[in-house]
């Protein structure tokens, strides 16, 4: 291994004037680590060109894609640390074959994303955008026409009850909501202890006043909430998605909203990001949108950065990092020194 451990960060961490848009992401941990140097890559979007990764031992990545072509010249690359938990922009098989670990920051995102889910639930159910507009348009007298929907005593149905879903459950507990979830991988004992009733997808959606999507995007969950699933929802129900857009059939959701078959939707994520100008979802009624950024807070930035940097430094120091997506990569000779 080279005497200096070279770390790259994708360029989209910085604003055009050179500031870190996320604020404090824990870069002092890298700056203070002996034998470590870091730099920002030029790439801010799209595929990372292979020459950008040449000579790097580690990459901390945000949105640019890491493909098989990206790692063609990355002879030293030992770890890609995702700043977040989603990794649909990373070719995991290519990294594994290359002898490169992929880590995520699952210890950092649960609370901020759970807070985002709660914010969206409250925002759409309490009609905050409508009420903001009433004030701005001097329509105070119309406020009786914009009654909200309370959460107390209602049923929330989770699609996915993993790290984020469990944290949302904890935040909702004081509100006295009945909680259900569809997640074939959830621990029944843990769910029972949290007061969450597990069930099949259509049963959970059919009984929920609020459907909250927190599942990971996989081949099994892509389009999981399709037209048939949405058709099971109550006309008074709201859908909240803080996971990944392609888990929900967006056109089917837009149709259900337009036709008044569900009450509303709050989306932090979309099928295409950003959605095209003519996307049907953008003109659907009773919606609340965020540009995949509801959870973007100082809390998230520091926690994500610290987690990703710790993974990088663990690899530098010969330790196996936490939250590895592809542990099969340890079989590669390039990682034989990690204990």
**Uncertain segments of ≥5 residues (pLDDT<50)?**
none
SSE string, helix = H, strand = E?
A: EHEHEEHEHHEHEHEHEHEHEEH
- Give the N-terminus to C-terminus distance in angstroms: 16 Å
Percent in strands = 5-15%
Helix content range: 25-40%
Largest sheet: 7 strands, parallel
Give an overview in words.
The protein is an alpha/beta fold. The protein is 30% helix and 14% strand. It is built from eleven helices and twelve strands. A seven-stranded parallel beta sheet has the order 8-7-6-9-10-11-12, sandwiched between helices. Strands 2-1-3-4-5 form a five-stranded parallel beta sheet, with helices on both faces. α4 crosses α6 and α4 packs antiparallel against α11. The chain is globular, with a radius of gyration of 22 Å. The model has no long low-confidence stretch (mean pLDDT 97).
SSE topology:
Layout: E1 5-9, H1 27-31, E2 36-40, H2 50-53, E3 58-61, E4 79-82, H3 92-98, E5 101-103, H4 106-125, H5 128-136, E6 155-159, H6 163-172, E7 178-182, H7 188-193, E8 196-198, H8 201-207, E9 210-213, H9 227-231, E10 238-241, H10 250-258, E11 264-267, E12 287-289, H11 298-316
Parallel strand pairs: 1-2, 1-3, 3-4, 4-5, 6-7, 6-9, 7-8, 9-10, 10-11, 11-12
Helix pairs in contact: 4-6, 4-11
Write a concise synopsis of the structure shown.
This protein has helices at residues 27-31, 50-53, 92-98, 106-125, 128-136, 163-172, 188-193, 201-207, 227-231, 250-258, 298-316; strands at residues 5-9, 36-40, 58-61, 79-82, 101-103, 155-159, 178-182, 196-198, 210-213, 238-241, 264-267, 287-289. It has 339 residues and is of the alpha/beta class.
